[in-house]
Every structure is written in C-alpha cells, then in structure tokens.
Amino acid sequence: MSRVGKKPIDVPQGVKVEQKGQMVKASGPLGNLTLDVHPDIRVRVDDRQIMVINDQPESRWHKQLHGTMRALLSNMVMGVSRGFEKKMELYGTGYNIKEQGPTLVLQIGFCHPVELPIPTGIKVNIEVPATRGNDVPAKFSVAGIDKHLVGQFAANIRKIRPPEPYKGKGLRYADEHVQRKVGKAFASGGA
After folding, report:
1. Torsion sign (Cα): 154, 159, 165, 166
2. Can you list the alpha helix ranges (DSSP code H) found in the chain?
C-alpha cells in the first residue's frame, strides 16, 4: 500500500467536495476544480475528509496510481482554499518585465521583446518591474489555483532565458541557487 495514498485528506473550512462516479469536484473561496479519478482507484468523500482506496495493493502500478491520485486530490483541495504561487526573479542590466492586457512582455537582452500569453486562471503579480544593475533583480510571482498550471507557466517563463553560470543573468525561481563559474584567467608574463 502506498504510504502517501493511505493518508486521509482533510477538507478545510469553506471548501465543498462533491463526487459523481469517478469525478471529484472541489469548490472553495478561490474557485472550482475537477478531477477524473482513475477507474482502478476508489474515492470516498466524508464530511471533512477524503479517503483514496486502492483495491489492488500488491500491484506496483496500483501503488503508484494510489499515491498519485491522492496527491492530485490534495493539491486540488489546497488550490481552491489557499492557491499556489511561484516567486521568480530576473537578473541582468536593463532587463524588465511588464503586463500588457493578457500578455506578459519581457525585455531580456534579445533584439525584440518576448511576449507570452498568460493562461486563464493564472495571475502575474509584478513587485519590482525593472532590474537595477546586476545586483538588484526584478521580482514577480505567478499565482493560481491549479498547481500544475502555475508550475508549467513558471517553467515556460524561465525557459526563455535560464540563468547563465558566469554572471547569473537571466530568469530564475526566487529560491533557486545558481552555481557560478569562474571566468577566464589571463596569464601574465611574456615570451
């Protein structure tokens, strides 16, 4: 049996969970999410708890499926109650970020601005819009109720210009550590 899968999911106050067959719907103060549970896994919704039940605990595939479905349901309940957020930073002289309607516009050292459409259900909060030298970064965060969507959009933003190892310029997560390399050392002396 999966250690993750057998833990019950506590439903916080203000969140309503409904089940129709294999479809589970969670409604909360931030919005609504639905999940189609795999047919080999059963879900039992009580007053303030959700139990995920695996009928074939000896199968390795079903153990993995058990833990995965439990984690997806837990993320769904947490998303409609608290939401998810990824904080990001942009390093590099002259780099900046701005929001123009449903588009995120990044000036990050290319000859043209990079425009990314913001998916529905995602909100971008820009705290510091422009960098000040290489030491003070531009700061922003990606927030939403769907953990997968928030993480994927943050990864798509970072993929445009990942941090380079010499000066550390580029997009990175706020808690990310960039391993720095030493530049070329010039030999002195003459021949």
Report:
1. negative
2. 60-81, 147-160
Q: How far apart are CA 175 and CA 170, in angstroms?
A: 14
Lay out the sheet containing 103-107: strands in order across.
Answer: 96-100, 103-107, 114-117
Q: Tell me how far apart the alpha carbons of residues 154 and 173 are, in angstroms, rounded to a whole number.
A: 8
pLDDT, tens digit (0-9, with 9 covering 90-100), for 62-72: 989 999 999 99
pLDDT at 191 over 80: no
Sequence spans of domains, the chain: 9-81, 84-173
The C-alpha atoms of residue 21 and residue 35 are separated, in whole angstroms, by: 11
- Whether 10 has a pLDDT exceeding 90, the answer reads yes
- Per-residue pLDDT of 35-60, as tens digits, reads 999 999 999 998 889 999 988 888 89
How do residues 104-116 score in pLDDT, each as one tens digit? 999 998 999 999 9
pTM reported for the whole predicted model: 0.88
CATH superfamily for 84-173 is Ribosomal protein L6 (3.90.930.12)
Question: What token pair was written down for 94?
Answer: 């002259």
Go through 65-80 and write b for each residue having 16 or more CB atoms within 10 A of its CB, e for each that does not. Answer: bbbbbbbbbbbbbbbb
Q: 9-81 and 84-173 share one CATH topology?
A: yes
CATH superfamily of 9-81: Ribosomal protein L6 (3.90.930.12)
